[in-house]
Amino acid sequence: MFVAQRLAVLPQSPLAPAEGCYALRFTHWAYYLVGQPRQDLLAIVQIQQSSSGNPAVAISIFPSSESRIHELEALPSTPDALAHYAHQQNLPWVHISSPLLLEPVTVPKPWGQEIWYTGIEARGQAAVIGQGGSLPLPWVMEFLREQLDLAELEQLILLKVLDPLPDEGYGDLYFELHERKQEVYVVTHVDKSAWPDGCGAIQLGFSPDARKEYKTEVALKAAYGAAVKRYETVRRAIDALLDEKKQQQGMTLSQPVAAHQLKLWINELSQVAEYENLIELEKEYKQAMNSFIALQPLAVGDVVTVPRLVPHALQHGVRVVEFQTPVYERKILSFGQKVLTQEHWDTVEALTLVDMAADTLIKPESLLESAAVQVQRIVNFDEFEVCRIRLCGQHELKFDRYCLLMLLEGDASLTWMESSLELGAGEVVLVPAKPQASVHLKAAT
């Protein structure tokens, strides 16, 4: 609030100082951590006014302590002193009035990994890259809500990469649906070791053949539910045996196990006469269960929009960029491994929610087509819009609120007011909505 007030005053009054430096002590509510602790933090803030009158704000944030407070009280009241102190103390120095380069956090999964660019959870938090290091994104967000046009406690749209293992037995994601969350996938890589022809897949809804076989939706859901229940019984029996292996290794039951280790354990179990039939039944029942599911082919560049209430599961070896509503809720219909984040599957409840009539093939809408630039609107959800830009020249991108830009391939430069930034493939930048909701993009020559 204090920084927003200073920025509001700075450009309006000719008597306002051209620059200012401040130290703030505040309490950060870490709602995303276990126990939701309150963190006592300090921030040093440098506010300067450019020749054009636009404010430039730089900050560093760190845990509060009496020794830090005394050090800050002794500093000269000059912006240079703050920047020098941050450098001297190895504290990250972030310019928050410019587009922000985001540092992702990698979160291991039973099926591979997720790479979060805006994720803020107990399992990990993304960060903002500055001079001399990076600051946790949730800390920086304390100073950004006004610029990003975000309401109190409103979260950024979740931008992440799903990177499944290229292993058919262990790289498929959960077959799940969402009641509130909306998702869109853009395929960026298909592993040739898993899909030699370069065409991967996603499970999406129920197959046309299954729909034809059963006269009503009720009959189809009942048959599929029975197939899942039969598979789940075998799955849980195998998982119990694998849990024994974990305990023998001193691992906790919720701890992920590398795919190669699981394969070794499964191979050991298959050599035991008592379990040989169980291992074979798992394969048979899994195939029968999956025969109900539609398999949509995916190649690099393809877009998949996942409507609410449509069950889906990205398949092994298919890497995607995902934009999604920042809520954590799902109903798991089935999974080819032990679910580590909950004790149960949600098959029965999920089947009462499934939308059989949803359109699962939403085509991108062309917004601009020229030799220099092509712009497609991939989705226009209630909460966010996703566009894909193919850039050979220059383009001004306008937006209503904040904007997240991810460069998928090539190199480009970004200009926002007086700030400029060079972007390389895989990098993500967060662009504020205020004071200017547009950004100029230029492809590298």
Describe, in plain words, how this protein is organized in 3D.
The longest helix has 32 residues, at 217-248. It is built from ten helices and 29 strands. It is globular and about 75 Å long. The mean pLDDT is 90. The strands form eight sheets. A six-stranded antiparallel sheet has the order 6-7-12-19-14-17, with no helix packed on it. Strand 2 and strand 3 form a beta hairpin. It has 445 residues and is an alpha+beta fold.
Largest sheet: 6 strands, antiparallel
What is the molecular shape? globular
Rg over CA atoms, rounded to whole Å, is 25 Å
**Secondary structure: helix percent:** 10-25%
Strand % is: 35-45%
Provide a compact summary of the structure.
With 445 residues, this protein is α+β, with helices and mostly antiparallel strands.
List keywords for this structure.
25% helix; alpha+beta; five-stranded antiparallel beta sheet; 10 helices; 445 residues
Tell me the layout of helices and strands.
Blueprint: H1 2-9, E1 19-29, E2 38-49, E3 55-63, H2 66-73, H3 79-88, E4 94-95, E5 100-103, E6 105-109, E7 112-116, E8 120-121, E9 124-125, E10 127-130, E11 133-136, H4 137-141, H5 145-148, E12 158-164, E13 175-177, E14 183-190, E15 200-206, H6 208-213, H7 217-248, H8 259-270, H9 273-290, E16 293-298, E17 303-306, E18 312-314, E19 318-324, E20 331-334, H10 347-353, E21 365-369, E22 373-380, E23 385-391, E24 394-398, E25 403-406, E26 411-416, E27 419-424, E28 428-431, E29 438-443
Antiparallel strand pairs: 1-2, 2-3, 3-4, 5-10, 5-28, 6-7, 7-12, 8-9, 10-11, 12-19, 13-20, 14-17, 14-19, 15-16, 15-18, 21-22, 22-23, 24-29, 25-28, 26-27, 26-29
Helix pairs in contact: 7-9
